[in-house]
Amino acid sequence: MVKLNKIYTKTGDDGTTGLTDGSRVKKHDLRPEAYGTVDELNSILGIIVSLYENKPLKEESDDEILYLLKRIQNDLFDLGADLSKPFSTKNEVNDLRIIKLQVKFLESFIDKFNKDLEPLNSFILPGGSVISSWFHLARTVTRRAERNVCSLLDKEKINKYSLMYLNRLSDLLFVISRLINDNGQKDVLWKPGQYQ
Length: 196
What we know:
By secondary structure, the chain is mainly alpha-helical. It has one domain: Up-down Bundle (Hypothetical Protein Ta1238, Chain: A), CATH 1.20.1200. The chain is built from five helices and four strands. The strands form two sheets. Strands 1-2 form a two-stranded antiparallel ribbon. Strands 3-4 form a two-stranded antiparallel sheet. A hairpin with a 5-residue loop joins strand 1 and strand 2. The longest helix is centred in the C-terminal third of the chain and has 26 residues. The model has no long low-confidence stretch (mean pLDDT 88).
């Protein structure tokens, strides 16, 4: 368990940060960039959770989405721990890593939520409702985190499920953005060249 007695340590004053294995890297290194973006995503999901918890008119799917978001927030801390611990030759049995089950969990909700949505004949623009717009923002930050993890993968070994988790999560957030837009009825469709 993590115990934080002191908030500032001054150890990062030289532009470095500590990884879980005790090593230090520059704060702009690919690894902190990756788990930092995951942290940013988690903060956006925290805003969405707050919006759901303070929603005056609850809908049938709200409790399920709220449960799902809170579970994803916890999983994102697992992902941050995974990304902050480089692979080594030492015993890694007890290292916290994203596992296949967490990826499958996301896939099950993508399938469940997507089955009643009309197929798209156009890309959609972020919008339709405030909460849907927040889901689109979360989706795009998830894609940035995925790109960061891909960049890290070019340089170092990573857990393959961490990348898969981000890929499925962006898909899930997209599907939820449509679900809460009256099952896609309030989606804003892109009209190519409309203003040319």
